[in-house]
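Notes to self after the Tuesday call (sharing in case useful).
The group wants a holo model before anyone commits to mutagenesis around the pocket. I volunteered. Ligand is zinc ion. Logging inputs and output together so the record is complete.
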Amino acid sequence: MRVPKICRYCGGVIRQIPAEEVYREAAGRLKLNGEWLYQCQNCNARVGCHRGTMRPLGNVANEVLRLKRVETHQVFDAFWKRRHMTRTAAYKWLSEQMALPENQTHIGGFEMDQCQQVIDLCRRAEEERSAA
Ligand SMILES: [Zn+2]
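Result:
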C-alpha cells in the first residue's frame, strides 16, 4: 500500500502522526503506543500502520468506514475465538478465503465491500458448521 498524501474524500493533506495524538489516554489500552497513523488534516479520515512500521494498512477511512472496520473486527475476532483458532491461523484462513496475500489481509485497511465480505464469510462458515 503506498503512502496516502491527499485525502480521497475531501482532497485535504494527509499527515503522518503518532497514534497517541489521536487516541490520547486510550493509546496504551489499544496497544498503540509508538505506532503511527495517517490522518487527513481537513476531515480527520485516517488509517493505521502495520505494527512497528510507517506502512499504512490501507487507504484512509472516514467515520462510516471506520465504524465498519470496527464492526468487522468484532465479528471476525468473535468468530475465530469461538472456533478456538489462533490469530495467525484465523488470518491465514481469511487470506485464503479472500484470495489475498497474507500481508494484505488487514481489516484495518479494508474497504466497505471487503469488510462485508469478511462478515459474510464468517456467517456462512458458522451456518455450514451448524448444519453439519
Ligand atoms: Zn479529508
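Two things stood out.
DSSP finds five helices and three strands in the chain.
Residues 63-82 form the longest helix (20 residues).
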